[in-house]
Design brief:
The chain is of the alpha+beta class. The chain has helices spanning about 40, 65-75, 95-105, 120-125, 130-175, 180-255, 265-340, 350-360, 365-380, and strands at about 1-10, 15-20, 30-35, 50-55, 55-60, 75-85.
Length: about 375
């Protein structure tokens, strides 16, 4: 089953690399389809496809030079008759798995260590996605640090405003036992201001916790989803590079080890079949790699857009909430300061005796302890 494919020529090229041909090989086939060329855009030609005819002329038994001359004859377009062979074994095998693992390890090493890889190293070194991944890693770490430090700040602030509320409650409980109206009013005013500081602080904590929840959602859901997509992309990338390395090794083997073989030797036929299968699988994995790459680019673009839009808003919200709290806390604190000094004498019997007895009554103490404490307080009280 053959297929006719017509390709326009751009700058005298159609975007194919061919391999095989007389006198050593049984056929001429496509070794590579160049990216972003007419052959790549049409999507009908894959690496490993056999070329049966060019512009209606059969090329069976011909060499590459004859095919190149047929391609040059027409300045505008070229019509190819293509036959696609099925790959008998599409399993990756131990060799491909080992090469993929090798690239995983080598990608994290200095470039000087892996210069011997040649083409595959160039693919690793020129990956334009790598700077974006590094930037995403830094932004992720910033989000985690921001969330961690904001959580510490809110925990401490919650404890601080709780202390103000407790002290305000203590002053509020003390005020009713003072029979001098000026003193009672002053204590109530202190209690009111301290408790207002506590309420204002709680409002600030609640506003900031909403920001913390939003950042936590970003860290717990959006970032892991993007990281999973990146992991899938990395798997496709290293599988593709493994087939690139395998094809490179076969090309080197042809140059170095087949020089002494006679034309149409069985070694050549075996090499032709293996190389054709490898370049076909390399082409298929390159398509998967490019598709995964496009998905990763889009995910990172959307995530970076969200981070750059949301993080400044979150930080501004926190800054405004803290600023409002500090301003109101300063006003209430001034209200506490303005109460003092109180121009009166706080009497011992009302402030101490009544309040302490009320507190002791609520404590779960044994009878002897309660009696001794009461006697001690009464014995220390001055006579009426």
């Amino acid at each position: 089953m053959t297929t006719l494919v017509t390709l326009p020529k751009v700058k005298g090229r159609i975007g194919l690399t061919i391999c095989g041909g007389s006198p050593y090989y049984s056929s001429i086939f496509v070794a590579d389809v160049h990216l972003k060329t007419e052959a790549d855009k049409c999507g009908k030609i894959w690496a490993g496809d056999e070329i049966v005819a060019v512009n209606g002329c059969s090329i069976l038994g011909s060499g590459k030079a004859y095919v190149a001359r047929l391609v040059k004859d027409n300045d505008t377009k070229v019509t190819l008759e293509i036959r696609r062979w099925k790959v008998e074994d599409e399993s990756k095998g131990l060799d491909i798995a080992a090469k993929a693992l090798k690239h995983r390890v080598l990608e994290k090493m200095p470039s000087g260590v892996v210069d011997g890889l040649g083409f595959c190293h160039a693919v690793l070194a020129n990956d334009k996605l790598q700077p974006q991944l590094e930037r995403l890693t830094r932004m992720t770490q910033f989000c985690k640090d921001f969330s961690y430090r904001l959580r510490l700040l809110l925990d401490d602030l919650h404890a601080l405003v709780g202390v103000h509320t407790d002290i305000g409650n203590a002053f509020s409980g003390l005020a009713p036992f003072e029979r001098q109206s000026e003193v009672s009013t002053a204590l109530s005013e202190v209690a009111r201001n301290l408790r207002n500081i506590g309420l204002t602080g709680e409002e600030c904590v609640q506003d900031c916790r909403k920001v913390l929840s939003s950042v936590h959602t970003l860290i717990a859901k959006a970032l892991p989803d993007t990281q999973l997509t990146i992991q899938k992309y990395a798997d496709k990338k290293f599988e593709y590079l493994a087939y690139c390395l395998k094809a490179y090794e076969l090309e080197r083997a042809e140059e170095e080890n087949f020089a002494e073989c006679e034309p149409w030797n069985g070694v050549y036929l075996a090499w032709e079949k293996e190389y054709r299968d490898v370049v076909r699988l390399r082409h298929a994995h390159r398509m998967l790699f490019n598709r995964a790459r496009a998905v990763v680019f889009e995910k990172i673009r959307m995530l970076e857009m969200k981070l750059t839009q949301d993080l400044p808003v979150h930080m501004e919200t926190v800054a405004e909430a803290l600023g409002a709290f500090y301003k109101k806390a300063a006003e209430h604190s001034q209200g506490v300061v303005d109460v003092f000094p109180i121009p009166c004498t706080i009497e011992w019997n009302y402030i101490t005796t009544q309040y302490v007895e009320q507190q002791l009554a609520t404590m779960d103490l044994n009878g002897s302890s309660s009696t001794s404490s009461s006697e001690s307080v009464n014995s220390s009280s001055p006579p009426e």
